[in-house]
Amino acid sequence: MHPAKPRGGFTLIEMVMVVALIGLLLSIAVPRYFHTLDQAKAQVQQQNLATLRDAIDKYFGDRGRYPDTLDDLVKQHYLRSIPVDPLTGKPDWTVRPPEDTQKGMVYDVASAHEEPKPQ
């Protein structure tokens, strides 16, 4: 009779431990990934809002009134296009008119994803 040769491979316990370790690492990494993704979207949103507000201010400075719509900023070449809100995935923004609506209709903008804060 030949002596039994040791077989190479993993035991069931070793496989379970590896799967458990991978699960533990994923439980730490995945929430951090989504948190970082949310932070990046918030930063892009803030930059887009700053771009829109800057274009509105320039429009007012040049014309003495606010635009009637955000599309006016594109038509008059203050923006190439209306930026996309990263939280909604669409170029939809909530606009706030000035107190005197004779001076236009777009005084300020906010994300359509959130309720605008009263001022």
TrEMBL record:
At the top level, the lineage of the source is: Bacteria
State a GO cellular component annotated for this protein.
type II protein secretion system complex
Q: Where does the record locate the signal sequence feature?
A: none
Q: Does the keyword Secreted apply?
A: no
Alphabetized UniProt keyword annotations: Membrane, Methylation, Transmembrane, Transmembrane helix
Family matches, as Gene3D superfamilies: Glycoprotein, Type 4 Pilin
Q: Which residues form a coiled coil?
A: none
InterPro entries with a match to the protein in the record: Bac_GSPG_pilin, N_methyl_site, Pilin-like
Chain intervals for the UniProt region annotation (Disordered): 87-119
Q: Name one GO biological process term.
A: protein secretion by the type II secretion system
List the transmembrane segments.
12-34
Q: Does the keyword Membrane apply?
A: yes
Q: What is this protein called?
A: Prepilin-type N-terminal cleavage/methylation domain-containing protein
This protein's species is Noviherbaspirillum pedocola
